[in-house]
Structure prediction request, 834 residues.
Amino acid sequence: MFTTGSKFLIGASVVALIATVVYGIGQGGVLGTVGLASATASLIGLATLNALLRDSNVFSDDPAPVETSSAAQFAPPPSVWPLGFAFGAVIVAVGLISYQSIVIIGFVALVATGAEWAVQAWSERASGNVEHNAAVRSRLSNPLEYPVGGAAAIGVIVFAFSRVMLWLSKTNTTIAFSVLAAVVLAVGFFIAFRPKLGMGAVGGVMAVGAIAVVAAGAAAGLDGERDIPVFETTSVWQQEAILHPAEYAEGAEAGSHPAGLICESPEEFPEADEDVSQTVASKSGSYQVFLTEDGTIAFDVPGPIEEGPAGMVIPRSNPTNVIFRNQSDEHRRLSLDRGTQTVEVEGEDAIVRDQICTTLIEPGGAQLLTVKVDQPTFAADGQVNPNGPGGEAGDGYWFFVPGVDTAKLEVIVP
Amino acid sequence: MRDRETGTSVTDVNLTNRRARTFKFAALAGAGLFVAGCAENAAQDTTDPAGTNAQMIYDLSWPIFAIAGIVGVIVFSVIAFVIVRDRDRGQPIPEQTHGKPILEIGLTVLPALILIGVAIPTVGVIMALDETDDTECIVNVTGQQWWWEFDYPVQDGCGGVTEPIITSGQMVIPADTNVLIRGTSRDVIHSFWIPRLNGKRDMVPGRVHNLRMQANEPGIYAGQCAEFCGLSHANMRMEVVALNDGDFESWKANQLEAYESPTDEQALAGEASFIANCARCHQVNGLEDADGTPIVSRPDLQVYPGAAPNLTNLMTRNTFAGAMFDLLSQSNREGVAGCRERVWEADPDDFGALYLEGVDNECLNEVDLREWLRNSPAKKAMYADPEQLEPTDGLYRGMPYLALSEDQIDDLLAYLLERK
Prediction:
């Protein structure tokens, strides 16, 4: 009997009338009551006019327009993209007052959901058939959605895995992921041997697994990484002794560390020498220096050793990896004395020894030392190295082992 | 739409024209490739081995290529036969069969046997190429963006080396001698490859890799870095120069000769200019300042990888700038062939003497060397723009523009010509 537009206007008139009465009695404001009464009168007028004109164009008694008018056509399915777009806008806004990275995430969400929204809106105008429109959308979007979505999903899972790994201790990480791998394998076998298992069940299991991984990653990420101990290096101790001699001497007197330069000391230094790795993973392609049982230094390089005057040749300015293997019965370190260097100590230039060394290595242990010498051997001509064998033959650069006077090996830089 | 006279459709004509064009292009490309195989004087020709190591690879590659070719022809023939025989003519799909044990086992075992047959000699050659026990001479090779450094450690090998020798661009070795390259890199991964003498070997920072090198006869053997290593990878070249024993002894003796300050006035000015502009990076052994103090270059303070070519005996080499340019000119010299060709194409018996002449004023490729000194970044792509060195803390990768005057360049040329 009433057309659609008339129903809307009649409803609005009733609401306005109620509002006028409630406001007039409850609030007593003249201006508000007059305004609402005016709106009510206007709406009643419009409702009456519209009811008389039958929504202007629809013959309400004729069923054909009801079926063919645009308002009678299918309603597009609800879309999630406007919601996503709004969410992206909120993230951008939050990012603008917090972190730039959040702005980038929000912007990506904004672009992605905006594009999806636009494509969906475009496809919904393709025809009056919902399924056909969905197919049109899929044909355009799926080639991009699937790889990007897959990569994003893998990225999220990998990131979640990494958070969990960094949260657990090294041992527990190994155990946890061994168990997890076994579970994945077992579930895989179970699914493979049950071909009648429904796709829904398989999808459910995978979804639960994915959610569990992401949730665990989020929880671990929020809790933070495990404590990873940081040790002082020998270089730090060496520099400390050279650059702050007074404080260093005070520390030595107080017994917190031995006196002297660490690279010239056979003693154990706290932090630098405690709990250090005594093994190296590198097995080939490196120079090796051995402290032998008889207290001498031998070396090895890939290929034959050059016959002639003993000395290890390394290229100039080249970071060269040297594995030190302690074959003696004592804890020892390998040091390289690269001549002198000028440093600023307490505001004045001072000439000091330029040395690097390994930590103290247990008998049978090994450690990698990366050595780099920037000047050729002839640059040290005439400069006797106190850690060499002494005399003229002691010019240049020398490997030595503190506490073992017979352990000397020249490093020759062409 | 159809042609009124022939009755063929326009679409058919377009398709036919396109196919014809594609065929012509493929035929032209194929002919080009075929003709390229006929090139003479191909300096980097793997099918023209000049040493035992390259010969081993060559002898192995031909039978394997033949086997692979036969297998390929059989496989493609069968595929073509099936495609033609069973092409779609509207017939029903052929009967689908499963389970022919003899055929399936046969088609598994046969390739396995072929692969085993290929693997046995391949492993043998790999092991032979890894052999180091027969080394007679050791050369350390260090790659750096975009040149190679060669140093000869003190050793009894190489006929005896009493002091380290260092050079770049050209690695000089005794001919018919088992040389072992001990290689590494200062910056990124490079690959040392002299195609006529051996295969490739990656030179990796922090690691030492060995590579055998042997040349049957005296001569120059060209090579090229074979691992993409940045902006001027294509310009990172090197040459191996093989000399007979006597000539190699002469070369070593020359490399170890004491430095002599020039007496010529212009060369003396060039020495001063070198100290002022070049010696920060380039070492010339024996060069001293006015006080008699040895001048030690500090390329580690200027160049990101830490080194620059040692120029002590520059004019004993035939190349510069990472072997990108010849030091010997192409021009004729008093009725004989061009200086470069004269050395490169020399008879093996005469090669050593010609090579040891080095580069003199008449044969100097002055054009390229002058342009290099004038503006090296314009001659070779390098990271040499001072405003773009933030990632390397202000250190160059390559040689920067030095803003030398023409007079300074003249002086430097006079000085460098005496570096031999």
Remarks:
- The CA atoms of residues 262 and 268 of chain B lie 5 Å apart.
- Chain B has ten helices and twelve strands.
- The interface with chain A takes residues 132-133, 135, 138, 140, 142, 149, 151-157, 160-161, 164-166, 180, 182, 184, 186, 204-210, 283, 285, 294, 296, 298-300, 305-307 of chain B (CB under 8 Å).
